[in-house]
Amino acid sequence: MTRSFDSSESTDPAESIGSSDPFVRYLNAKRTVDDRALHRPTFERLVTALETRAANRGDDPVRILEVGVGTGTMLPRLCDWNALSGDVVYVGVDTRDAAIAAAADKLTERSFECIGERRFRLETDERTLTVELHVADAFSWASALAAGTVDCVIDELAGDDPTFDLLIAMAFLDVVEFDRAAEALFPLVAGGGLGYFPITFDGETIFEPVSDAERNAAVLDAYHAAMDAPDRPGGSNTGRRLFSALPAANAERLAAGGSDWVVAPDDDAYPADERAFCRYIVDTIERAVLTETPAPARAGLSDSDVVAWADDRRAQLDRGTLVYCAHGFDHLVRFP
Question: How far is CA 30 from CA 37, 93, 170, 183, in A?
């Protein structure tokens, strides 16, 4: 839940290592971290609520929108964890072309048939699963969808109450303006639709072991201050703020729980591609503190201090001794 200040994953390390885009590799590498972190009682409540939505849809497919879809790891997770009932239409939106391309590759690897430009379909005995991917800013795309100026598979379905049954935004609300999300995205699931907001960062970043406690605390405080800078949307305590912000946006809380990233080596080795995941996080923190933390929040912390902190962490990673944790919350709500 390091905030890379970008707004998700494969269990195959070779696939991750093969990516030429560092951020795409990071998204792929965090699949296993997210799998462990997700709050299972909240996820199970989501499964139950989706079953109800599917029953209400009858013969029509359940409609799911994921914003910040990344490399498309949530959909395979929903399938593998038996979260989907009946036919499903899944729309994914992300600003990065490289991430969407990786998501498309995952679909073809899972035997989806390409039936149009970035539109895919998989038919099984249990369901027909149709997926459409869009490279776009989520808010602009949502506005265009509401105005009828963007082509979307959702337009081909009967009925529009609500447009979508489920909005998924993982590790998203902590890097965007909440009010803007409420205005642009929440209406897309109005009328009983669900909002699932997992892995929402909540202000705690931990690295162990610590050799210089004072420097470590100063770097992490400065990193969180970068998230809270006046010109930065979101914030370091978004996870807890959603407990009040979502009801204020007229959402009914169905479930919530902690979702902590925990990466620890076993016999000096990290699971899957999680060493690369942690290295990206260390690099991100270093870059954020050096370039984005407001000057008052960096008082007494020199550039050389920050670089030394990051070099120590990278060396620990190379030795297989670094432990990384970040605290977050999962939220599941219903919109009237």
Answer: 10, 19, 12, 30
